[in-house]
Request: fold
Amino acid sequence: MKIAITCLFFLVLLGSCRNEPDNFNRDPESGFDGTGYIPIYASDEEIRKIEVLDARPLKSPGKIYKLGTWLFVNEAGKGIHLINNANPREPVNAGFISIPGNYDMAAKGNFLYADNLADLVVLDISNPENVSVSKRVEGAIPVQSFPQEQNVFFECVDVKKGNVVGWEKVSMSKAPGCRR
Reply:
């Protein structure tokens, strides 16, 4: 009787299994449209270099912070634009704070908080014509090793090449090894 019950149990167990495809056994090129993302690498020294440069055109603007007549406009992955908005009809693009790996910012009073890849940097913006780094908190921000976009193919990160500070979408002849 015990053997019959054990056999019945295994038959029910086997009958409940389904042969459905799963994500691990799919063709890696299914859904590949001929484009993918490649990482943009920078050395530790390049990442830590924060400097005020000449103005540049806004290409991918993000968050905006206003302090007096000044606007601080985030440029995804690159840094922060300094815009003198004393005359709102004719704002002046006055400079650019280069912050590699910068995607977000927040502000309170005369301090601007920005991500610098894994580090949090605090900028003294009390004088927008003379912005300076007030503090750096190393390793404060978790770093993603994949593009922000969903359902995309991308070249797997090679940590020997440096730190990933951004992603570039390019044409590819075949699907790269990683997908998100």
Notes: The helical segments are 2-15, 44-48. Residues 4-26 have pLDDT under 50 and may be disordered.
